Amino acid sequence: MKNENPIGLFDSGIGGTSIWKEVHALMPYENTIYLADSKNAPYGLKSKDEIIALSCKNTEFLLENNCKIIVVACNTATTNAIKELRAKYDVPFIGIEPAIKPAALHSKTQTIGILATKGTLNSELFHKSVENHPDVKIIEQIGHGLVQLIENGDINSPEMEELLKSYLNPMVKKNIDYLVLGCSHYPYLIPQIQKIIPSHIKIIDSGEAVAKQTQKIIEQNHLLNSSKEKSSQIFYTNSEPEVLETILNHMEKVIYKNF
């Protein structure tokens, strides 16, 4: 494995670009390949076997493109498939799961909210995380319809606002002081969420922690790219690239490809 080989990332669509942004900001000289499986979004409504199969397919695509490490930039894929991925493929994997621990440790009201997909909330890994904090009341809410609206580019739509209000207001009434975003798509909703919930409620997502863990594992495996030349950022999608381009603010030096 060569040090200049890219970091691979995949998600059920464009949401994992919130993770990619953190990874790229922390390690700007690393080459990356991002795979947006938007055609099959959302993963949260699929069975565990379907999620594993799609995750394997995405992994094999990234390995064919010589990725040295793979970031599963999808909560649903991590919580349902990362165990199988690590057993099947000889490459380091970085997973992403809801940041329950920091919210539970710092909560003053001992009540936190989790907004996530059905696939994540129903997973064995998520339930194990919840069991580690028996003294904290955890309000779970499935974000029905949110991923689809984001994938369609309807982040600022009235429909999005109504959905968010219906999910968040009951949590606020139950006195949460932390809101954990359990889907890599959801950080793109933070401006809308902040308009709905009181300012004292802190919002937590996993992006920065995932980026730091990725850097740590790359360094431990002696795979850090020492080149200081302009890095290559390639984004693959099996859907229309316009929403992906928009969410990345039409970055220069970015290559978009269909697969």
Summarize the structure in words.
The protein contains 11 helices and 10 strands. By secondary structure, the protein is of the alpha/beta class. Strand 3, helix 3 and strand 4 form a beta-alpha-beta unit. Helix 1 crosses helix 10. The radius of gyration is 18 Å and the shape is globular. The two termini are 24 Å apart. The mean pLDDT is 94.
Shape: globular
Overall structural class, as computed from helix and strand content, comes to alpha/beta
Kindly estimate the percentage of residues that lie in beta strands according to DSSP: 15-25%
Poorly predicted runs:
none
Fraction of helical residues: 40-55%
Number of strands: 10
Main sheet summary: 6 strands, parallel
The number of distinct helices, counting runs of at least 4 residues, comes to 11
Mean pLDDT: 94
Q: Supply Rg.
A: 18 Å
Largest sheet, order of strands side by side?
4-3-1-2-9-10
End-to-end CA span? 24 Å
Q: Which labels suit this protein?
A:
alpha/beta; 42% helix
Helices and strands, with pairings:
Layout: E1 7-11, H1 17-26, E2 32-36, H2 48-64, E3 69-72, H3 75-88, E4 93-94, H4 100-106, E5 111-116, H5 118-121, H6 124-131, E6 137-142, H7 146-151, H8 158-173, E7 178-182, H9 190-196, E8 202-204, H10 207-220, E9 233-237, H11 242-247, E10 254-258
Helix pairs in contact: 1-10, 2-3
Brief synopsis:
The chain is α/β, with parallel strands linked by helices and 259 residues long. The chain is built from 11 helices and 10 strands.
